[in-house]
Write a structure and sequence with these properties.
The chain starts with a helix and ends with a helix. It is built from ten helices and no strands. The chain is mainly α. It is 72% helix and 0% strand.
């Protein structure tokens, strides 16, 4: 139980930021491209309460953490309401709206990386804050990689639907009602992490090393050596 409390304390703020800005970015992009549905419903907000799903964001992750001994964690936020038909160019703009969420997570990973660098520079030695910043990088890269998996209703599924020719896009979109169960099965059998998320997070780690002061070996150690 003490481990759970410590984990919640370290991850609470990074997870709240990751979820809130991810969903708000979807809403902002949708409004920018012509769909004001989320904006009119108050979802283009930085208030975490607007985006948290009590069951998917709180209950499921805690239960899975306890049942798996901290080895398996999964959760979800309240989806932003979108009406793709209201977008100026629905098929094209759907991809940009979908990519806005993962892009927000990548930006936050960059900011958390700089936070670690600044703490090291000014001599912050409190492990809690360093762990929180590391959790910020990890959480955002995991959320980015997971949501880019090309199965609807995940963001990657929306992007792939946008890119496919109309005939195939229509057929592909029809699997959306079953998408959640497909994704859960792939998560359970560790397919998504091994063959999709790990390579993407690895690549993102390399990208962060190019645009931040932290080197790739340091970032790799921060993220992968403690997984």
């Amino acid at each position: 139980m003490n481990d759970l409390i410590q984990t919640v304390a370290v991850y609470a703020l990074p997870v709240l930021f990751a979820i809130t800005l991810h969903e708000a970015a979807h809403a902002y992009a949708a409004k920018y491209f012509g769909d004001t549905t989320a904006y009119m419903m108050g979802r283009m907000s930085l208030n975490p309460a607007k985006h948290i799903d009590p069951f998917g964001t709180l209950v499921i992750p805690v239960l899975l953490y306890l049942v798996s001994g901290g080895k398996f964690l999964f959760g979800y936020a309240k989806p932003v309401p979108l009406d793709f038909g209201k977008l100026r160019k629905p098929k094209r703009d759907m991809a940009w709206v979908a990519l806005a969420g993962p892009a927000a997570n990548l930006i936050m990973a960059v900011l958390w990386t700089y936070a670690i660098y600044l703490m090291v520079v000014v001599g912050v030695q409190e492990p809690f804050f360093l762990k929180m910043a590391r959790a910020g990088i990890f959480t955002n890269l995991v959320m980015m990689a997971f949501n880019l998996f090309p199965i609807p209703p995940l963001d990657g599924g929306r992007v792939l639907t946008s890119l496919l020719p109309n005939r195939y896009a229509y057929k592909f979109a029809q699997i959306e009602p079953y998408g959640f169960f497909i994704v859960m099965a792939l998560v359970f059998f560790n397919v998504i992490y091994t063959w999709w998320m790990f390579p993407l997070i690895y690549a993102a780690c390399w990208f962060l090393s190019l645009i931040t002061p932290l080197s790739f070996p340091i970032l790799f150690s921060l993220l992968f050596n403690s997984l």
